[in-house]
Structures are given as structure tokens and as C-alpha cells.
Amino acid sequence: MIKTEHLSKRYDRVTAVEDVTFEVRPGEVLGFLGPNGAGKTTTMRMLAGFVTPTAGKAFICGHDVEAEPLAAKQRLGYLPEGAPSYGEMRVRRFLEFIADLRRLEGARRRQRLDHVIGRLQLASVLEQSIDTLSKGFRRRVGLAQAIIHDPPVLILDEPTDGLDPNQKFEVRTLINEMARDKIIVISTHILEEVAAVCNRAIIIARGRVVADDTPLRLAARSRYYNAVSLQLERPEQLAAARAAVAALPSVAEVEVSEREVRITALPRSGAAILPAVSQLASSEGLALKELHLESGRLDEVFRSITA
Amino acid sequence: MRNVGIILRRELASYFATPLAYVFILIFLVLSSWFTFYLGGFYERGQADLQPFFAFHPWLYLFLIPAISMKLWAEERKSGSIELLMTQPVKVWEAVLGKYFAAWIFIAIALALTFPIWITVNYLGDPDNGTIIAAYLGSLLLAGGFLAVGSCMSALTRNQVVAFILGVAACFLFLLAGYPMVVNAFQSWAPQALVSAIASLSFLTHFQSIARGVLEARDLLYFAMLIGFFLFTTTVALDLRKAD
């Protein structure tokens, strides 16, 4: 379990993190969201014992990070921001070095090394020095380092930054697989990632927690939640369709995109407008290319909360 | 304690994974021979000892050791690898000792590679090999002292050039503490006890007594305490500001 109590970090005049309190339980994958400079990395560094909090406490599996740093660090796998490592080392030697520090021995050491090398597809670069690797490989070496000792708690600062779409998919699959029996905290500024891997999201802005909910319920806060979007076959029907949709009593607002020939109808709070809109479309004789119900836009919620 | 060994091995290997080790050893050997033969007048003196060889070591170390020590912590800060290291289950002092001893062993290797001059002097004459061994030990301790000072300076900054300059300046002060220009400045007004206290902090006085072949407990203790003090300071400096 991860627990923080009123965690705060102040530098001279700047407050990086202010009174952050939350708990994460096994099986939860927590996504840390926030604009750059909001305090995500500082919070994660305090959890990992790299930054000393000005006030408050952090616990990893019940161990106070400041009072019992070794016990906390043994239970934690941590990927620092930017996945730093020792550039002159070969990948194999680097992973062996971490395995030694993590006290992996004998058959288990071999098995864990083989596992992370296979899982993160590092076999082809084992004898290369880390300096010569691409950004994607470097990030995967950092991930391998974080999971090599099979820790119950994983804290990953931007685990998919710099990866191509295939690699992102691989890493997300890996996180989803590990999510069953671990506590995972990831930070990201990619919102689709939160929907893909997290079952809980905390949004931080200016050092404070401004939202803490499941990604679905966060998206439901969007103006676009239950909005209906119709794409028309014929552009000349656009003006008439717009007027008709706007006249529906449960529709609060209508947005039009001329380029896409698309009308988006936003409902009054809580109203379900799909039946009314589809009925309207057939009675008005609109030629529809597409009609769909939106589940809410996370990026819009993110912007409205953090701006 | 096992972590000290693990970190030491990694560090030592990293010296030899880059050109640093080879450049350093080459420059060290070239300069130490050049000082011995040209400035020290190795042949002209007509004496079978290594006094001219060891006499220049303090001045050689003054620039070469900070060049090694500057990267100890400043580089870790710059590259961010300090975050990786400090979030492993490792105590700060274990990392400090591991990195320090790796650098010291590396310098010991460079020093050991000066063995041809020891063979030369044995070939040319009949030197007191006991004195030579003591002088090698003194030189190694001196290097260790410089290195500990440099390690502390490196822990204070993320900029290696700053770490180098601070290292040279601090080592220079410790070297000069026993020299007349420092001692005289205090002698006219300060009590004798303070003057001797400052003079006794000097690297040179302690090194020279060992280099003459006199292995005294107080000289060994001096270096042990000096190294201990600066490594402790390094640990405190890192603990206070790991992330900056």
C-alpha cells in the first residue's frame, strides 16, 4: 500500500507540492496527471525517498520513507524521470549491477534477468553500451531495472515517453499484466494512456490535488459526456440540421464543424439526447454518415480543471 | 557493507570503459618521469634513492587528483543517475565509500605502474627499499587525502569544472598549510599552539616524514582522520541535497 499524509515540498519561495494526501491499494493503477511543473515528479521523488518532504509523510507498504528508507526502497521499483542510467555500461552489466544491489542470487537472479530481458525485448542490445541506445531502448532498460526484483509497488515517471506506438502498446500491456497483484503509480501527460491502463486518476495542478476519481467518472465531468455527434453526408443540409437540433428542448448547445460536416449536440445536465436526435435525423431526412454517443473528453476535463 | 563492494566494482569498471583511465595513467606516468629526470635531477644527484621521484608527487596530485574526483558526484548529479542510485536500497555512506575506494584503487594502479623507476634505481645502485616502500605508501595516503577532499567538493555541485576548481583550491590550502608563507603569516601574532595546529594540518609535513621512511602512527592517524572527516562531510552534503 502507498500512503501519503499532507505531503508538502517547498523550495525557498516556490511551493512545488502542497498538502497531498492519498492512499493506493493493491490492484489499483493510479495515473498521475498534471501540466508540466505541477508537482508530479516531485511527489514521486518524495515517494521514492529521493526528495525529502518539507512536511508530511509518505509510506510504502507501511514503511515510512524517511524513517525506514531501506525497508521502503526494497519494496519499491522506481523509474526516475528520463530513465537515467550509467551510459558507459553495457545493458547486461547494468541489469546485473541492479540485480546485485537488489540482492538477487543464484537461480532466481538468472530467472529474473531472463524475464525482464525477454519481457522488454532487450536481448538484441545486451552487449551495447547504454549511451549508444535509442531513446526507446533506454526507457525499456529503465523499466527493466525497476521491475527486476518483482516489487509489490511500482512508481514509474513517464514510462512511455519517447516510445513509438508499438512500444507504447507493449509497455501498457506489461503494466496491465502486472496490475493484478501490484500497486502501480504512473505519471503521464498522455491522456489516452490513463484511459488505457489506469483505474484511478489524480490530477495535480500547482502542487495540489484537484481531482481524484476513475478515468470514466472524470470524463463524465466533461461537457461532452453523453453528447451526440452526427456527421452528414451532404454539406447543404448542415444549416437546417443545426437549427433543428438546437431546437430540441434537452439540447443545451450545438457545435458545428464545417470542415468535417459534423454537428455535436451537448445535452442539458444529465439528459439523454440520443433518442431524440436520432428520431429527428430520420424525420428531417438527414443523410447520416455517422452518429455516435460521446463518453466524455478527458482532455477537456483536464483543461478545465488545470487551466 | 556488501553494497560498497558492488558499487566499487561498477565504478572501477567504468573508469576502464572510457578513455579516462588510459589518458590519466599515461599523463601521470609521463609527468612523474619528467619531473623526476628533469626537475629532480635523478641522474645528476648521483644517489640511489627515489627522493626526486616522490618529491613532486604532491604537486602532481594537486591537479591530477581533482581531475579524477570532480566526476565522483557532480557527474551523477548532472546525468541524473544519482536518482537511480539513491532510490536503490543503498545507504548514502555505502555509495560514498564505494565510489571513493574505486577512485583510490584506480590511482593505486596508476602509482603501481611507475614500478620501472624502482627497477631502474635498483639496477643503478643499492637503494634502501624499505624507505621506497614507505614512500609509496605515503604517496598513496597523500592521494587518498586529496581524493577525499575532492570527493567532498564534487558532492557540492553538479558542475564538474566547479568541482575541479574547488578541489584544486582546497587541496592547495592543505598543501600550503605547512609552508613558511602560511606559517609566517600566523607566527607574528597567533599563539604558538595555533601556529603548530595549522602547520600540523599540512599534507606536506606528514607526507614528507613518511617519504623519508619514517612510518609513524601519528602520520597514519592524520591521513585516516582527514579522509574520514571529508568522506563524512561528503555523506552529509549528499544527504542534505540529493536532488539539487
General description of the model:
The complex is a heterodimer of chains A (307) and B (244). Chain A is an alpha/beta fold. Chain A has two domains: 2-219, P-loop containing nucleotide triphosphate hydrolases (Rossmann fold, 3-Layer(aba) Sandwich); 223-296, Alpha-Beta Plaits (2-Layer Sandwich), CATH 3.30.70. Chain A has helices at 40-48, 69-74, 91-101, 106-119, 135-147, 165-178, 191-197, 215-220, 238-247, 274-284, 298-306, and strands at 2-11, 14-24, 29-33, 55-60, 63-64, 76-79, 153-157, 183-187, 200-205, 208-213, 225-232, 251-257, 262-267, 288-295. In chain A, 42% of the residues are buried. The model of chain A has no long low-confidence stretch (mean pLDDT 90). Chain B has 244 residues and is mainly alpha-helical. Chain B has one domain (2-240). In chain B, helix 2 (20-39) crosses helix 7 (92-112). Chain B is globular, with a radius of gyration of 19 Å.
Which structural traits does this protein have?
heterodimer, A: 307 residues, Rossmann fold, Alpha-Beta Plaits, 36% helix, 29% strand, B: 244 residues, mainly alpha, 14 helices
Describe how the helices and strands are arranged.
The complex is a heterodimer of chains A (307) and B (244).
Chain A: E1 2-11, E2 14-24, E3 29-33, H1 40-48, E4 55-60, E5 63-64, H2 69-74, E6 76-79, H3 91-101, H4 106-119, H5 135-147, E7 153-157, H6 165-178, E8 183-187, H7 191-197, E9 200-205, E10 208-213, H8 215-220, E11 225-232, H9 238-247, E12 251-257, E13 262-267, H10 274-284, E14 288-295, H11 298-306
Parallel strand pairs in A: 3-8, 3-9, 6-7, 7-8
Antiparallel strand pairs in A: 1-2, 1-4, 4-5, 9-10, 11-13, 11-14, 12-13
Chain B: H1 2-17, H2 20-39, H3 51-55, H4 57-69, H5 71-79, H6 81-86, H7 92-112, H8 115-124, H9 129-155, H10 160-176, H11 180-187, H12 192-200, H13 203-211, H14 217-240
Helix pairs in contact in B: 1-7, 2-4, 2-7, 4-9, 4-10, 7-9, 7-14, 9-10, 9-13, 9-14, 11-12, 13-14
